[in-house]
Amino acid sequence: MTRQLRQQSSTGIHHVMLRGINRQIMFENDDDYRKFIFILHDLVAPKDQLKRPLPPRCAIYAYCLMTNHVHLLIQEKDDKLPNIIRDIASRYAMYYNNRYEHFGHLFQDRYKSEPVNDAAYFLTLIRYIHQNPVAGGLSNDVESYEWSSWREFIADPKRVSSICAVSVVLKSFPLEELCELVNTPLPKTLRVLEYDNQNGAATDEEVKAFLSSNYGLIHPADLTLYAKSRRDEILKAAKRYGASIRQLSRLTSIGYSIIQKA
What we know:
With about 260 residues, this protein is of the alpha+beta class. The chain has helices spanning about 30-45, 80-100, 120-135, 150-155, 165-170, 175-180, 205-215, 230-240, 245-250, 255-260; strands at about 15-20, 60-65, 70-75, 110-115.
């Protein structure tokens, strides 16, 4: 099947989503989140080998790091979007694979993006991206979530290092007005770029919860200690539940072919 060409943006601004392959968890701890943010900082304030400033490759207006996907509101500057996203993905995947002895792909093959061609949709995305942790059940309110750019908007710039072009946003949308909007939930019927979920695949968190609640497996890798018949019975149940073979292999450390035959 031929891939659809990406839509061009008249403003150079795009809403981008990067997702872990099979909805794999991408951030295991705070250091992982910090590493990803460091990579973003290198894009907006790059330096050469002698630490001399270079032109920004892009501008970032908002970001949110969820457990298994990332939202970016990003504008091309000194580089094109495919190069920027390729660099983000390859640098973080190299870090992740080295740290966790992970093999294979970390990110879903192709990132999703959509053009942002007017101020109204730009504002909608500022709200949507920052509300993501609340909608996803990771935080009770927008302000409490540590791994989004919202704190850059509301904090003292002298005390918080900023990646986002906050001043550019606030020239068009005063902070008091923006705070009210960002803290007002968007309607659930709003159509915003998302990965479809028609394949029914379960997330890592969901698979872990399934194994824990139904079979007492606090650590999925403990399944390697079970007798073959019992192990295969649980693997079959997990596959029926919606876990993929690669996902189970990664979580349990059981070989792909063994899970495939179960």
